[in-house]
Write a structure and sequence with these properties.
The complex is a heterodimer of chains A (253) and B (324). With 253 residues, chain A is of the alpha/beta class. Helices cover 34% and strands 15% of the residues of chain A. Chain A has two domains: 160 residues, Alpha-Beta Barrel (TIM Barrel); 72 residues, no CATH class. Chain A has nine helices and nine strands. About 7% of the residues of chain A have low confidence. Classes of the chains: A alpha/beta (253), B alpha/beta (324). At the A-B interface, helix 2 and helix 3 of A face helix 1, helix 2, helix 3 and helix 4 of B.
């Protein structure tokens, strides 16, 4: 999928739904698409050890030459998330930062140093503070939020929230990610992406229709939808004209 | 015998500075070269919170290698099990094993650095019960098609425990041959107690410091890269405890002696000499040899040259002599 997305010039692919296997999928994507396609890693907050997640993301960003985007998911229920202990509370008695703080600090290349409880009476030389390493490859890994409590978590931190409703998009943000479903019907999907561009979305993730054939769906996106919103008043003849002939035998056309 | 290379730890050290993205890219490129040259296994290594970015997350690193190779197996040597949620680890490792056509070997160890336990919110005092309960989860996953489990251990009790549970050991390169022989016998005793069928018996493995050359200057350089790579163990605070007649090697407190002793384990010389020493491992039941060739200060061209030389002159003469 990542290789296909890269071949079609698309900005990124998103992994799973907060599944713990997401870092593996992301690493596979990262190694198969090597030029520019971003890997948007969806991390479910509150269910995974924050330090482990931060370490996986730091490694991943180096595996993929700095093309990671973190999509932190608070889950469907804002109430459950706020009560889960993932927000600003210690995890398993570690004096570590919350997942958002920990991952975000790693994302910024700022080592989230924290004091450790230690209990090392015989080992006075052991450090009493630690930092996650390695640093990510990017100066700062983009950190987006989604889920029921995303708005609440985003307020004090000014993080971008993945918009699911055009009214929720903000033209004031430097980056406004959004996600929308497409149907596979060109006219409808054109209207969808145009509406999102008008609402201020800068990076639009498209959910493919159930059972969609990936090659055909991505070809439609790269040929018709992405150009449609790449400039105001896109001259459609550019995408509706006949596809140039293929070199004999290369299978394109 | 089967041959691998390690330990890929993706460090950017004070002695060999580089960017981490380069380390990960080099690993993928070297993995492709290893596959082309006929190597069987690549082994990764894990530590946490170390200044040089020592790889703290082995499965994403393994996934990146597995996704650019077709035949090479990738092993974690070792993933520090007590610091993980075993159910999550089992799910992720099984997924990766399935996606790679069963090419993942899940090596697990207990860990020894206090700060690594602290940083993951785990009491070091709990490492043994967490290791055992974690193994039970991984064993269930293995029985259901998950990756084969390997273990890292240097002491009598854990080695015997691995034998009883039926898991192969990958011995450290720092262990002299005689200590490997002693511990292999211990593992065999554990295996015998398990009363498992002979058909299930796995072959053991060992990392080995090795440099095939008859050139004096090259040999000196290689031994010095081995020395430099073990200085890191002083920084990590590793100790190889005494076992029977085998003395303790304390890298933190007796750094120079421990390192000098370890450098002496390096197999160097002609192809015939390297083969003679490797055959000793074959004879005691160690059929997987991972050449410990990722060394601090070693230029990549030297590494590639050594990979080719071993592939040309050693692998064909020992491979499958005894099926692994």
């Amino acid at each position: 999928m990542a290789r296909l997305a890269e071949a079609h010039g698309l900005f990124g692919v998103m992994t799973g739904a907060g599944d713990p296997r997401t870092a593996i999928t992301a690493a596979v994507y990262a190694s198969t698409a090597t030029d520019f396609t971003r890997v948007i890693v969806r991390v479910l907050l509150g269910q995974e050890q924050p330090v482990t997640i931060a370490e996986e993301l730091a490694v991943l960003d180096n595996v993929n030459n700095g093309r990671t985007v973190i999509l932190a998911d608070t889950g469907e229920s804002a109430q459950r998330y706020m009560a889960s202990g993932a927000h600003g509370v210690v995890y398993r008695n570690v004096t570590s930062p919350s997942l958002v703080d920990c991952v975000r600090k790693v994302a910024r290349g700022e080592s989230p140093r924290w004091k450790v409880p230690a209990g090392l009476p015989a080992n006075v030389t052991a450090p009493k503070a630690i930092a996650v390493t390695p640093k990510p490859a990017q100066l700062e890994i983009p950190f987006w939020l989604t889920g029921g409590a995303a708005g609440e978590v985003a307020k004090p931190s000014h993080l971008a929230v993945l918009a699911r409703d055009a009214k929720a998009a903000s033209v004031e943000r430097s980056v406004q990610p959004a996600i929308a479903a497409i149907t596979g019907t060109l006219e409808e999907d054109r209207e969808t992406v145009i509406a999102w561009a008008a609402a201020g979305a800068t990076h639009l993730l498209l959910e493919l229709p159930e059972g969609a054939q990936h090659e055909a769906a991505l070809a439609m996106i790269s040929r018709y939808l992405a150009p449609e919103v790449a400039m105001p008043n896109f001259p459609r003849v550019m995408s509706t004209s006949k596809v140039p002939l293929a070199w004999p035998g290369d299978g394109r056309g | 015998m089967r041959f691998g290379v390690g330990l890929f730890s993706l460090q950017c050290t004070a002695m060999q500075p580089r960017h981490w993205t380069g380390a990960y890219r080099d690993m993928r490129e070297l993995a492709s070269l290893m596959e082309e040259l006929g190597y069987d296994e690549l082994w990764l290594s894990e530590h946490h919170f170390f200044y040089d970015g020592y790889c703290p997350a082995l499965l994403p690193a393994a996934a990146s290698v597995l996704s650019v190779t077709d035949r090479l197996r990738v092993g974690t040597g070792m993933l520090l099990l007590p610091m993980y949620d075993p159910a999550r680890l089992a799910a992720v490792a099984t997924d990766l094993a399935e996606r790679s056509g069963g090419r993942l070997d899940l090596g697990v160890g207990m860990g020894y650095r206090d700060v690594e336990f602290d940083g993951h919110g785990v009491s070091r005092k709990q490492r043994l019960p967490r290791m055992i309960s974690g193994l039970e989860v991984l064993e269930q996953a293995e029985a259901a098609g998950g990756p084969p489990i390997w273990m890292g251990a240097q002491l009598v009790d854990p080695v015997k425990r691995a034998g009883r549970r039926g898991h192969p050991i990958l011995f450290s390169a720092a262990l002299p041959f005689e200590r490997c022989r002693t511990l292999t016998q211990v593992w065999e005793e554990g295996w015998a107690e398990s009363r498992r069928s002979l058909a299930e018996k796995p072959a053991l493995g060992a990392l080995r410091n090795i440099w095939l050359t008859e050139d004096r200057k090259e040999r000196e350089a290689a031994r010095d890269w081995v020395r430099a790579s073990y200085v890191q163990y002083a920084g990590l605070g590793w100790t190889l405890p005494a076992v029977g007649d085998h003395q303790q090697q304390d890298y933190a407190e007796e750094t120079d002696k421990a390192i000098a002793d370890t450098v002496e384990t390096t197999i160097t010389g002609s192809a015939d000499e390297c083969i003679r020493q490797l055959q000793q491992f074959d004879e005691i039941g160690i059929k997987h040899i991972a050449f410990r060739l990722i060394l601090d200060g070693e230029p990549r061209r030297a590494l590639e040259s050594q990979l080719r030389r071993l592939s040309d002159l050693v692998l064909p003469r020992l491979r499958d002599k005894v099926p692994a």
